[in-house]
Amino acid sequence: MKRLLFLLFFTFAIAASASDFKSGYLCYKILSEKDSTCEVTYNGKDYYHDPYTVDSVVVPMYVKTDKGTYRVVRIGNYAFNDATIRSITLPYSLKEIGEWAFCSCLALPEVMIPEGTVTISDNAFYGCAGLQEVVIPQSVTSIGVSAFQGCSMLETVKIPLGVTIIEDGLFGDCASLKTVLLHNKVKIIGTGSFAGCIKLKSISLPESITSIEDGAFYHCEALQKVSVPSKVKMISNEMFYGCKSLSEIIMPQGIDTIGDKAFGYCQSLTRVRLPESIVRIGCYAFAYCENLVDVPLPAGIRIIDDGAFGNCEALLQAIHPNGVDVIGDFAYSGCTQLKSTRLPESVETIGTAAFDKCPALVNVISMTEKQKAITRHTFSNYAKATLHVPFNCKKKYLLGKYWKDFAKIVEDAR
Q1: How far apart (Å, rounded) are the C-alpha atoms in residues 409 and 391?
Q2: What is the pLDDT of residues 208-255, one digit of tens each?
Q3: pLDDT confidence of residue 414
Q4: Rounded to an integer, what distance in angstroms lies between the CA atom of residue 407 and that of residue 151?
């Protein structure tokens, strides 16, 4: 069914974009007879099999036909898809660059978009692997999803003042991108907008930003320091996943959630200060942060989700404040240097293998008078660890399944 819908859409797109006339080596489609406007469209009947093969393209402001003169205001969808062009000159009459307009123009090294252009549509320059420079004028107010994704030679980008949303995947896999200039009217950083920008070392996020979406900086391997704007309320899923050079992250008060895999494989993080507003640390949020030594947990935290600190091999302690309800499955599994943990009176759930593969864990402090259900694999070091329990509770723990397996159970003083 999906394939049929795609074919129908594909056929419709081809039919809807057929050219009305040709002038020189370019094909055009009339947009409005009343306004005498037109767009450049693709060559022939099939944009995929008949790409333009000229080296240099100059798009005129006006084209003359037997019917009259038309002003060129748009580069149509797929117009230069897969074309072999090495240079493009765009007219000042231009208002919009359509979807996939320059997709996979592999030999195109630079583009100067003229002042007056308003819209750069989705995937407009997708996969232009040779594109090193693009000048975006201040007149542009919208840059579409993945518009520059895969432009692997692009090094610098300046966002015009009218653009307030950095759309999903906008600069994804721009492997040479080193400098991004964002102004103080940007509000949203979209999903995967800078994912795979492996040479991006720093980025200044303006205080105007209210949301940074999933995977925004996924595998930005050179990124070293980030200060999250104060209006952002969540560190989203996979936001900094794989940022192996990230050594400092500054998070404002007001953030309540660290999303799933948010800092996974951030191997240069050694210490993280969480804001007091944090309520939940998501699944595998800090997993495989192998040099993470210390993460003091704030008083308001409620949930340490599955695998949250899994395989944080340098982590030394896990002191859970009263108020924590859930310590998830595998929460600290593989924390080979973890020496002590405190289980608060408030805890209701201690997950399967929560402290599995923690051979250095020798002190477990339980603050609850009534022991919670655990499994054989919740702790892996029963035979060498000391369990500290509240005054007058030792007998209860000696009767508790698996709690009784600790090498020593000690009642703390009243």
Answers
A1: 11
A2: 999 999 999 999 999 999 999 999 999 999 999 999 999 999 999 999
A3: 61
A4: 59
Q: What pTM, to 2 d.p., does this model score? A: 0.92
- Give the C-alpha separation, 85 to 107, whole Å: 6
- pLDDT digits 0-9 by tens, 103-137: 999 999 999 999 999 999 999 999 999 999 999 99
